[in-house]
Amino acid sequence: ALGHYNKSQKIFKEIRDKYGYGETLHQMANIHFLKKKYDSAAKYYKKSLEILKEVASKKGVAEIYFQMGVMSTKEKHFQESLEHFNQSLNIFREISDIANITNTIRTLGDTYNEIAKKQIGDNKIRSAKETLKGAINIFTQIGDKDGIEEANFLLEDATEIEGGKKTVDEFKSAWG
Question: Which of 113, 139, 153, 163 has the fewest beta carbons under 10 Å from its own?
Fold first, then answer.
């Protein structure tokens, strides 16, 4: 696939189609992301983002921010992922892309759950409980019952740890 994208990238460059060139870079970034080559993916995302901003492709820019947020979450760079998801969400709201708004909100909620798991693992129980309340609020906004359920399970775990009924090590072994 990368070989075909390299060929199309050259063609888009020759015919001076910046949008096509930027989208091709985006797809190349996605391939590197799927191969867990995050450094390479980041370079392609950044270059694609630069080009798609230049040609005013708001949806393309929002999609890249979303992907960068997903990648940051995988790398456990949570602050960075929240920033990217919020940038994405703001643009999707601006262009009224309901499906992507919902998906981004859902993914933000999942990220809050991941942050809470780390907080619990680091024995920051109060912070985790606040994070999980935020996650429940997010999932409630979009009616995501599965997300609410997962956040509630994590909240129960945090409450049990705080009350001495469960240890952080028991939590870690249950959530992997």
Answer: 163
- pLDDT category, 125, cuts 50, 70, 90? very high
| pLDDT of 149 strictly over 90 | yes
> Model-level pTM?
0.87
23-32 as b/e, with b when 16 or more CB fall inside 10 Å? bbbbbbbbeb
C-alpha 128/C-alpha 82 separation (Å) is 16
Our measurement of the distance from residue 89's CA atom to the centroid of its chain's CA atoms, rounded to an integer in Å, reads 11
Residue count of the chain = 176
**Residue showing tokens 């890249």:** 64
Confidence tier at 4 by pLDDT (50, 70, 90): low
Mean pLDDT of the chain: 93
Tokens of 90: 């703001």
The answer to whether 40 and 32 have CB atoms below 8 angstroms apart is yes
Dihedral sign, CA of 59, 82, 117, 165? negative
Q: What is the pLDDT of residue 81?
A: 96
Other C-beta atoms closer than 10 Å to the C-beta of 57 total 20
First to last CA, the chain: 34
Cβ pair 168, 123 in contact under 8 A: yes
